Amino acid sequence: MTGEAKRSAPIPACEQPGEGVPTHVAIIMDGNGRWAAQRGLPRFEGHRRGVEAIRRAVRTAGDLGIRYLTVYSFSAENWRRPAQEVSDLMGLLKRFVRHDLADLHANNIRVRIIGEREGLSPDIRSILDEAEQLTRSNTGLTLVIAFNYGGRQEIVGAIRALARQVKAGALDPEAIDLETVEAGLDTHGIPDPDLLIRTSGEQRISNFLTWQTAYSEFVFVPAFWPDFDDAIFRAAIEEYNRRDRRFGGLTARAG
Ligand code: IPE
Ligand code: IPE
Ligand code: MG
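ok -> C-alpha cells follow
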C-alpha cells in the first residue's frame, strides 16, 4: 500500500478525530529554562511548571478529540546538560508517571513511550514499562512520551533491525520499502503527526520525529512551554486548519 493510499483509507470509527481536528499532534515543549530565568527562578522551577502544562495539553487534546498526542520530554542530546539538570528531569518524569498514571488510566488514555530504554536507570525503565502495560488496552487518546528520544537514532535502530534480518536470510534487500522501515520505528502503528507545535520561538526540529514529520504542518509559537494553555493549543489548531496540505499533489485550494 502506498503512503497516499494509506492516508486516504478510512479511519476506523473508534479512531475518528473530532471535526477539524488533526489526528496526531506532536509538541516540542521548549522554553522551560527561559521561562524560569525571566522570573529569576532556577531552571528546575520551569521544568516543574512544564509538567503542569503537559497535564493541560493532555486535557485539551482529549476535549478536542485528538487521537494521538506526542510530547518531546527528553532528547537523546539532552544528556549534554549539567548532571543536576539531567537528574532533575529524570526525577520529574518519574514523579509525573507515578502521580498521574492512575488518572491517565481512568481517563482511558493509552500511554506509549518512544526513545531508547537502554541507558536509563532500572527504576525509570520499570515505571515506563508499567505505564505502557497498564494502559495498553485503553481506547481513548494515545499519549506518546518521547523520552531519551532521537529521530536519527530511531532510524539507525530500524536500519540495524533490517540488516539483521537480511543477514539471517529472512529479508530480501529489494523488499525494503517505506513500510518495512516504518515497521522498525518506535512509532510503528501510529499515524504520522499532522501538526507539529514548538513553543519558545525556536524554529527547528532538534532531532524530533525526523522520519515521521516528512509532511507534517509546523506551527511555531512564541510562548514558553510553562505558559502553554488551552487557548494557545486551540489557536495552533486553527492555524493548522488554514493550511493547505498537498502531499506533493494538487488540491482544490492550490488551484
Ligand atoms: C524544554 O525546556 C525542556 C527540555 C528540553 C527538557 P528547556 O530546558 O530546553 O528550556 P530553554 O530552551 O533552555 O529555555
Ligand atoms: C528539544 O529542546 C528537546 C525537548 C524539548 C525535550 P532543546 O532545548 O533540547 O533543543 P535545542 O538544543 O534548543 O535545539
Ligand atoms: Mg530548549
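Residues 161 and 172 are 13 Å apart (CA to CA).
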